[in-house]
Amino acid sequence: MPASILIADSSPAMRAVIQRAIQIAGLPVSGCYQAGRAEDVLRLFESQQIDFLILDTHLAGAEGEELIQALRARREHAVPFLVTSVDASSARIERLLELGACDYLLKPFSAPTLCARLEQALNTLHANN
After folding, report:
1. What parts of the chain have a pLDDT lower than 50?
2. Domain residues for 108?
C-alpha cells in the first residue's frame, strides 16, 4: 500500500531533490508533502494523513529532537521517520535513534542510497500494518 511522505528540510533545493529521487525510483508513495519550517510540519501533520517523515535535524523553529517530541505529543501513534543531517556527532545520532528514527543519513548522500534506505523503511512500515 502506498505511503504518504512528508519531506521536512530547511532547503527547498534539497526537498526537491529528495522528492524527485523518490519519483524516479518509483517507490510506493501516494503523496509527497514538503515543509521547510517546524510549524509547517506540525500543520501538515494536523491536516494530512502522513505515514512517514524524512526529517532534516535543522529546521527553522525547532531542532529535530524537539520536533519529534512535539509530534508525538499530538498523535496517538508515532510516525516512522528517517533523519538526514550534516551533524555526524555520535551523541546526536544515538539520541535520534533512541527517539525512534529508523535510519540516519549523513549529508551529502546519494539519491540511490536515500531511496534504498527509504524503500527498506517503507517495507517495514507495510509489514507492520
Report:
1. none
2. 3-128
